[in-house]
Write a structure and sequence with these properties.
There is one protein chain. Helices cover 78% and strands 3% of the residues. It is mainly alpha-helical and 142 residues long. The protein is elongated and about 70 Å long.
Length: 142
């Protein structure tokens, strides 16, 4: 999570440092780059929601700060867009994380049920636990 926060902070510094003095074409590039990094981070870290939020939140904050510092009538609509984008991505990350966790638990339970019904003694969790508990020369075997 610490690394996600660090990388998110680096990407969040980009709009703060360069957006204000950039030409309109460069501002579009910075905007697209920031939006792409936010979406990529949210998609990459969706299985670990705290890391996804730690990565994307600094980029959102950096983008919001850059927009607030800009002068012009376009600030309010863009700020509303950023807020809706952040809300949508955070909800999507949490929903996908919940779904991933449920699928993982169901898969583990299914595999466990298959192993318990299997005739292969080495595949049974009871046998594996017993083997892990045996001691070899005063030390555990596993």
């Amino acid at each position: 999570m610490r690394n996600a926060l660090l990388f998110g902070t680096w990407w969040g510094a980009l709009p703060i440092l360069f957006f204000g003095g950039a030409t309109s074409a460069a501002q579009v590039v910075i905007t697209c780059l920031s939006a792409g990094m936010i979406a990529g981070g949210a998609a990459s870290f969706y299985t670990i929601p705290i890391a996804a939020i730690a990565y994307t939140l600094p980029i959102f904050v950096g983008s919001a700060v850059a927009i607030v510092w800009m002068e012009g009538a376009v600030n309010l609509p863009v700020a509303i867009l950023i807020l809706s984008y952040a809300t949508t991505l955070f909800r999507a990350v949490l929903a996908h994380a919940s779904e991933f966790t449920q699928r993982f638990i169901l898969q583990a339970e299914s595999e466990n049920a298959i192993r318990q019904g299997c005739s292969n003694q080495f595949a049974k969790p009871v046998q594996l636990q017993r083997a892990a508990g045996e001691r070899v020369g005063g030390r555990k075997a596993v």
